[in-house]
Design brief:
The structure holds two protein chains of two kinds. By secondary structure, chain A is an alpha+beta fold. Chain A has 19 helices and 30 strands. Helices cover 28% and strands 23% of the residues of chain A. The longest helix of chain A has 28 residues. Chain B has three domains: 208 residues, Ubiquitin-like (UB roll); 175 residues, 2-Layer Sandwich (Uridine Diphospho-n-acetylenolpyruvylglucosamine Reductase, domain 3), CATH 3.30.465; 106 residues, Enolase-like, domain 1 (2-Layer Sandwich), CATH 3.30.390.50. Classes of the chains: A alpha+beta, B alpha+beta. Chains A and B meet through helix 1, helix 3, helix 13, strand 28 and helix 17 of A and helix 2, helix 3, helix 4, helix 5 and helix 6 of B.
């Protein structure tokens, strides 16, 4: 450490950030010693167990509820209903989520909770609760909601220029639609809370939550308490992915309510079926679009309407929509644009945050569009994409300059080289020419993702750092650990800022009585925000110690250096140990604890006009994926994936690598495998989630990982203005997975005639791929000459990318 | 008696030592362990799909020693482990003394949120201790040359590490964070088992001998002393449920909260655990696990060899049996199509005696069969010699650990380019597994050429009565039937010889 006025991003020599270290809890993970919220139950005397009374209609009015039979079940202690709520009967911040509802809004909606001495007793009690529900009509699909005009929250529009004029200027116009599926988080640890009450009626809740402060606020308002009477702690989560940003609150409140009413600890843990049927997922989206290109295949204009399926209540649907609208451009310059967005209200779980937060859905619209129209424009999709990239100096449709736009092309070209794209594309062509029933596809797609919460106020964080007399350090910060390695990075930041070895720093679990008023650990911002706050706290302490050390070393305070546990002075031969300086400071009555704070500078956002600079910077990346598709079944495998991704100067390379790889595979799951199916029939099970278990909802397993996965971090990627020059990494890599879906599209096209346009369902499951292959084969049969060398006229599917008004001649033929 | 005693991580633990609810027939091994405070094993799904609950169990290795076998502890009734030995992630090593498996996982980024990790560690440890795991001769250190036919082989090779680690050992473990690459690297970095490793040494001793176990209560549990006691109990208690690995019953128990009037564990009965190859018949004990059958047949029945790696996951195959897969009568079990194509017969046993039923006549409707309440499936008999050409196609969303939307097994004699004989078994396209008799008729006696196959494939598309559900549409299922024959034809033509 050098003098005390370092910019946030400057990294000292010998920094502990940037060193490859395993996850701070890795040894606890692998030995089963790491504790998660529900593991505490075995260590908690006399805990009661909670079980929900779930209703089996998608929409209806509760007309009566009888709990006597439940109370007669041996071991049942109490049935919690709306009448028990001393405060506000609501689990959200929009006040549209009654915790104990009188209107059932989706199948599985819990209307009461039963507390039992054992889980079995609580379950049997819940079965015995009699609920009369008068059924009401239910809207299940986006199409039904749109038709019925069922929307919620504010509709928003992002626009720039004159889209009509832009489309009129185009020499090639296309229009299309896209249905985008949702995604279940499937964090391995389901939602869990354990609530206890102390002698003064203060409530302590262990919660598996990404947002302890908001969990605290909701628990407080449900119980009618002030925030200072409720403490929420999150030890760690067994995965979050956005699913524990808003959804834990009501569950924690139920446990806390039970604890205050019975005086006993109450444990609430959803089993997998409950978790899947009761909690929100990634928003499904519907998009209609119209796009124009000029003779050089450059986009002139885009008009689109995005409708998200918010489910029964708003929770985070509005900001999710905002991020979708702010990401429809992805990496492309669209001069004239008008994108409308709205949130449908349906009778399903309340869809919520999920890694990418609407960004993936918005970006998928343009990536799907480009993949579809490229053959009709007579261009390889890769060339079409590159031609439309942002250039330095250009701005997004919401008027934010695209900082570091040059990185898009630099990353693209780097990836083309490292993945040997041209050689392999030729090899794919050869392979396809000699294989009738198996085809390969190779595609490359870019990512540009805005970092910061769209809502400016959330871009702040706090930290608490204690240095004890023996020199050991304990840090607390407002972020939560869900596997993303935030705590590992924070330990590295603290060790760097204090100039001590990593082994000297410990981190205590996140809790609201240590750091108050925190933001959700979300929007990829955990390390940026909390890292800034931890660094701030550490620097305050170092600045105080600098004075102490300067005296002892007889040097100017500016010349004191803290490095690896040694404290030295420029021009002084003496070396003090960190612990010695700390001991001196204590004796001299120097404060050894500090609260740190950070706010992201330079942000502003007008949420109504959808204009401003909501993002501190953009994270960039690109992926090239090769797949092989079996024409008999539509099954496919990923042969190889190459990624170049911009993580800035990595705080913790092993952690960042894990985020990039894991994000990619999770994105691939969303795009090609994971499928949420609700019963949309008119029968009595209408509204039932058909995929409500691990046996019916399939997330990627070993068989879906790329056989060969090569990740490279973009070099010389220092991000000034962020802690130690790093960049956020949580969400952006998910969208690298567009490459796998586009590669599948290419492989499907290879079953068809040259220039065949492939319409691909999403998620692109083997069944969807099979139909695309069949369509391509039909087209090939209709036009038997099969040359891939020279695209001629555009192939136009019936219901896909429709050239309008007439099929255009190819703009350019890039053979 | 109503108590049980199990050795967990080297310590004898009594059933009532658990702080959870008292031990009943419905108590899973997972809940029992967690009640002891051993919270390393986690519940991720409670249906044997995610593997977060994986633990090691000491099982007989068939040669007088012990094999450390990974199972889903969420499915196994704790009563069926009475007298047994279990090792959890906590028992493999602690934070300051990591087991080699734990070390590789920790240093390579194999854990992120860590919730699935103890389960991965146990599955990985089982493969680490597999006695016939040997480094492969020519480690596949290169990446696939994506321009050549060698890719398929290279891909397959990616499922076995240079240290002989079979990736399928982890096919029943799900991770939502890492994307799996670091876990694969950890598995492939494992060395040979150390000479002084106590769990390795334990393999040389016999596995614990199963004892008779009774858990009383409203829904009692019985592990009978012998087959006679099992049959007597079946005859006595209508609706008694048989379990071996409990891979189906465990799901009913956990997710649908079913309780049986009597649960009878039969996985240990020697009469159900034989494997005999005669001149005209191969008899496979109904309570051998699929993993045991796979090891002991060693590829000698190619259709079964094709089936096993696609049947659920290794964790499930370590518990699941043919008796169970047939006993549940599920239309989407993966073994019935294969056994139908093999023309298998079932040996049904009761206090009244033994009878043999052709599998083709066994199923009577959705999850029903000709098996009476007092009968159990003792063995499966496969007539020999086998038809020489076979094919098994399982269509599912995921290659590892998924349930079929359609399964097609074909066994044929194509001698001289003519379809001498063919048997086709189908799963997932009707209320029961079925034989595709019309298709067989459309093939037999005809030349094995594209014309015959195309016509027969169209017939096959019309067999069964497939439905639309969350796994696939009826239209896709019918298309897959058709494609399965075209694919088989393509394979035989690419292989050239039609004999």
């Amino acid at each position: 450490m050098t003098a005390g006025t370092n910019p946030l991003a400057d990294r000292p020599e010998g920094a502990v950030v940037g060193v490859e270290v395993p996850h701070e809890s890795a040894r606890l993970h692998v030995t089963g010693a790491a504790l998660y919220t529900d593991d505490l139950v075995a260590r908690t005397q006399g805990a009661l167990h909670a079980w929900p009374v779930q209703t089996a209609v998608a929409h209806g009015r509760v007309t009566a509820m009888r709990t006597e039979a439940a109370l007669a079940v041996p071991g049942v202690v109490r049935v919690l209903t709306a009448a028990d709520v001393p405060g506000v009967n609501d689990a959200g911040v929009k006040h549209d989520e009654p915790l104990f509802p009188t209107e059932v809004c989706y199948m599985g909606h819990a209307v009461a909770w039963v507390l039992g001495e054992t889980l079995e007793a609580a379950r049997l009690g819940a079965e015995a609760v009699e609920v009369d529900v008068e059924p009401l009509p239910a809207l299940l699909t986006l199409a039904e909601a749109i038709e019925a005009g069922s929307f919620q929250g504010a509709a928003r529009t992002v626009s720039r220029g004159d889209v009509e004029a832009g489309l009129a200027r185009a020499t090639h116009r296309f229009s299309g639609e896209l249905e985008i599926g949702g995604q279940e988080h499937f964090y391995l640890e389901t939602h869990a809370a354990l609530a206890l009450v102390d002698e003064a009626g203060q409530v302590f809740v262990h919660s598996s939550t990404q947002h302890p402060s908001e969990t605290q606020e909701i628990v407080a308002h449900v119980l009618g308490l002030a925030s200072n009477e409720v403490t929420v702690q999150c030890l760690r989560m067994g995965g979050g992915f956005g699913g524990k940003e808003m959804q834990p609150h009501g569950l924690a409140a139920v446990a806390a309510l039970g604890a205050t009413l019975t005086g006993r600890p109450v444990r609430l843990r959803l089993n997998r079926t409950q978790d899947m049927t009761m909690t929100g997922k990634r928003h499904p989206f519907h998009a209609v679009w119209e796009v124009g290109f000029d003779d050089d295949a450059r986009i002139t204009a885009l008009r689109a309407t995005l409708t998200s399926d918010g489910g029964w209540s708003l929770d985070l649907s509005e900001p999710v929509l905002a991020r979708a609208l702010c990401h429809i451009d992805n990496a492309y310059w669209i001069p004239d644009i008008e994108v409308h967005g709205r949130v449908a209200r349906t009778h399903k779980t309340s869809q919520t945050a999920f890694r990418g937060f609407g960004g993936p859905q918005g970006m998928l619209v343009i990536e799907d569009l480009l993949g579809r129209v490229a053959p009709a424009l007579g261009l390889p999709a890769e060339e079409l994409r590159r031609r439309n990239f942002y250039s330095p100096g250009q701005s997004t449709p919401y008027a934010q300059p695209v900082r570091h736009a040059e990185r898009i092309v630099e990353i693209w070209d780097r990836l083309r080289a490292t993945s040997e794209l041209e050689t392999r594309a030729a090899a794919v062509e050869r392979f396809n020419a000699t294989h009738e029933h198996v085809k390969r596809g190779l595609a490359i797609t870019p990512v540009k993702f805005g970092i910061s919460f769209n809502l400016t106020a959330f871009n702040q964080a706090g930290a608490l750092v204690h240095v004890y007399k023996d020199g050991s350090v304990l840090i607390n910060h407002g972020g939560t650990e869900m596997g993303q390695g935030l705590h590992t990075k924070m330990l590295q930041v603290a060790a760097t800022a204090l100039g001590v070895p990593l082994s000297l720093v410990r981190l205590a679990p996140t809790r609201t009585d240590k750091v108050p008023n925190t933001s959700a650990t979300a929007a990829s911002s955990g390390a940026d925000l909390n890292g800034g706050a931890v660094q701030d706290a550490c620097r305050q302490i170092v600045d105080r110690l600098r004075v102490v050390a300067a005296q002892a070393l007889h040097v100017n305070p500016h010349d004191v250096r803290f490095h690896d546990g040694a404290v030295t002075g420029l021009g002084s031969a003496a070396t003090l140990s960190w612990a010695e300086v700390v001991g001196l400071a204590y004796v001299q009555r120097v404060h050894l604890s500090a609260a740190g704070y950070y706010r992201t500078e330079g942000l502003h956002w007008d949420a109504e006009r959808m204009q401003g600079s909501p993002f501190k910077y953009f994270a960039y990346g690109a992926a090239a994926t090769e797949v092989e598709v079996d024409g008999f079944t539509g099954a496919y495998r990923t042969l190889r994936t190459d990624i170049v991704h911009d993580v800035g100067d990595s705080l913790s390379p092993l952690i960042d690598l894990g985020q990039v790889e894991g994000g990619y595979v999770q994105g691939a799951g969303w795009l090609t495998l994971e499928e949420l199916r609700w019963d949309t029939s008119d029968g009595p099970t209408r509204g039932r989630l058909a995929t409500q278990a691990a046996s019916t909802y399939k997330l990627p397993s070993f068989s879906e990982m790329p056989s060969d996965l090569r990740v490279e971090f973009f070099e010389r990627a220092h991000e000034s203005g962020v802690v130690y020059g790093s960049k956020a990494v949580g969400e952006p890599p998910l969208m690298l997975a567009f490459a796998v879906r586009e590669a599948i599209r290419q492989a499907c096209a290879a079953f068809g005639p040259a220039g065949h346009v492939v319409d691909l369902g999403c998620p692109s499951t083997p069944e969807q791929v099979f139909w695309a292959v069949q369509e391509a084969r039909r087209a090939a049969a209709a036009r038997p000459e099969r040359s891939h060398a020279a695209p001629t006229r555009a192939g136009v599917p019936d219901d896909g990318a429709r050239p309008a008004p007439a099929a255009p001649a190819p703009a350019h033929v890039e053979a | 008696m109503t108590d049980i005693e199990i050795t967990v991580n080297g310590e004898r633990r009594r059933g009532d030592a658990s702080t959870a609810a008292p031990v009943t027939a419905a108590t899973t091994t997972l809940d029992w362990l967690r009640g002891l405070g051993l919270t390393g094993a986690k519940e991720g799904c409670a249906e044997g799909e995610c593997g977060a609950c994986s633990v090691l169990v000491a099982r007989p290795d068939g040669a007088g020693g012990t094999r450390w076998t990974a199972v889903n502890s969420c499915l196994v009734p704790v009563g069926s482990l009475d007298g047994g030995e279990v090792v959890t992630a906590e028992g493999l090593g602690g934070p300051t003394a990591l087991h080699p498996v734990q070390h590789e996982m920790a240093v390579r980024g194999g854990s992120q949120c860590g919730y699935c990790t103890p389960g991965f560690v146990c599955s990985m440890a089982a493969e680490y201790y597999r006695p016939d795991r040997r480094p492969v001769e020519d480690p596949d250190s290169t990446t696939p040359d994506t321009g050549t036919e060698a890719v398929q082989e290279a891909l397959d090779a990616h499922e076995v590490g240079p240290n002989g680690f079979d990736l399928h050992a982890l096919s029943g473990n799900l991770c939502r964070c890492t994307g799996y690459r670091p876990i694969r690297d950890a598995a492939y970095a494992l060395g040979e088992v150390g000479a002084d490793d106590p769990l390795a040494a334990r393999r040389g001793e016999p596995a614990p001998a199963p004892s008779r176990t009774v858990i009383e209560g409203e829904h009692p549990f019985l592990r009978p002393a012998d087959l006679a006691e099992a049959l007597a109990a079946l005859a006595e208690v209508p609706g008694a449920v048989l379990v071996a690995g409990a891979t189906d019953w465990g799901v009913e128990n956990n997710l649908r909260h079913r309780r049986a009037p009597l649960l009878v564990a039969i996985d240990h009965l020697p009469e159900l655990r034989g494997l005999h190859r005669g001149e005209n018949v191969l008899e496979i004990g109904a309570a051998l696990t699929l993993s045991e059958i796979e090891q002991r047949l060693a590829g000698s029945v190619p259709l079964l060899a094709d089936l096993f790696p696609q049947f659920a996951s290794r964790l499930i195959r370590n518990g699941a049996t043919l008796g169970g897969n047939l006993g549940t009568g599920s239309p989407i079990g993966d073994s019935p199509p294969v056994l139908l194509a093999l023309d298998a017969r079932l040996v049904l046993t009761s206090v009244r005696g033994e009878r043999e039923v052709p599998l083709a006549e066994y199923f009577t409707g959705y999850r029903t069969s000709v098996r009476t309440d007092d009968e159990l499936i003792r063995a499966v008999r496969v007539p020999l010699p086998l038809l020489p050409r076979t094919s098994f196609l399982k269509v599912a969303k995921r290659r590892f650990d998924d349930i079929s939307s359609v399964a097609v097994a074909i066994a044929a004699d194509l001698d001289g380019g003519v379809v001498r004989q063919v048997r086709i078994g189908l799963g997932g396209v009707a209320a029961t597994p079925v034989r595709a008799h019309a298709t067989e008729a459309a093939l037999e006696g005809r030349p094995w050429d594209l014309e015959t196959v195309t016509a027969a494939a169209a017939v096959l598309a019309g067999e069964g009565t497939p439905i639309d559900d969350h796994r696939a549409s009826a239209r896709y299922r019918a298309a897959m039937l058709e494609q399965s024959l075209l694919r088989f034809y393509d394979t035989t033509s690419r292989e050239g010889a039609l004999v």
